[in-house]
Amino acid sequence: MKRLTLLTVSVILAGTVMLYVSGNTPSQVQDATPEKAEADTNNAVLITDSTSRVSAGRSALPMTRKKDGLTTSLEHYAHQLQSEKGKRLIDSLESFWRSCLSQSNCEDSLIALKQIITPNYFELTKNYPELSRLWQQRLGTLLFENEQSLISRIAQFKHQAKLVWGEWAEVLLSDEFAAYDFELNQQNLPLESPEQYREAFEVLLEASQEHDLGLNTDVAKFEKAVSSLPDIMNQDEKSAFIDELEHTYLSPAQSEEIRARERQVTTQQNMVRDYHVELNQLENSLSQQRKTDYAGLTDAQWQTLYQQKVSEFRHEFFDSF
Prior knowledge:
Layout: H1 72-83, H2 86-103, H3 106-114, H4 119-140, H5 150-165, H6 169-172, H7 174-186, H8 194-207, H9 218-227, H10 235-249, H11 252-291, H12 299-319
Helix pairs in contact: 1-2, 4-5, 8-10, 9-10, 11-12
């Protein structure tokens, strides 16, 4: 089996998982870390450096102390954890752990947090580093067959996610799951006309707007829509679809920039093709000369000559561009 990337959406890292909060929360996450020693929590205090930037943007736990043993920042974090979703939620989880690790007060922070947060979310926070590590290990060993269908790959991915995250998989990876569902649905968009295709694509975008699919710009939407046009479509027909999408999502300047990039890619592809064609011709010619003109050379002499000829060819080829 060959290791393949599941989709062109961004490689999934533990930092990209998300949490979606609904009326019914999943059952408690399996405890993947050793239990901390019991401690007196009556005077638990959380102190962090407000100048420490542990993630993009703010620290989840700026320095604030309250005489009753709880901090305003910790209460704010608890609210974020149970109300936010997606990358903002993961930023908070990451920020919590980076902040407490930098201050060497994670145990005290968890003790204080346990008093003001529901058990399920406390277990998620406590076990997040270990589960994140296990998830990345699982992703590193996830294999797909070359001929395996997209539907099968997605099902396999979801199964592996549930083995690590349990019932939290659906909410933690809801963005990723939504991106895969979007990919599947996009393959079934109608192709009767450019207008119909564009309208169906916009409906699909609208239905997925609550999820972060990485389609936050018009250029990204254009490129995503074009990516699903089938290869069997003839060039004239495909151009009509692309024109419709360009008029919808791109400015004239953006259209020209994309065309310039496409021309550059085409030029590079042609150069690579020509290089291999000419190199193959040279190798065939040298193979024939080895039997005639260079038949008297020893193997060592022939290898030296061969490498010299190939090196000269490469210099001449690339100097011509």
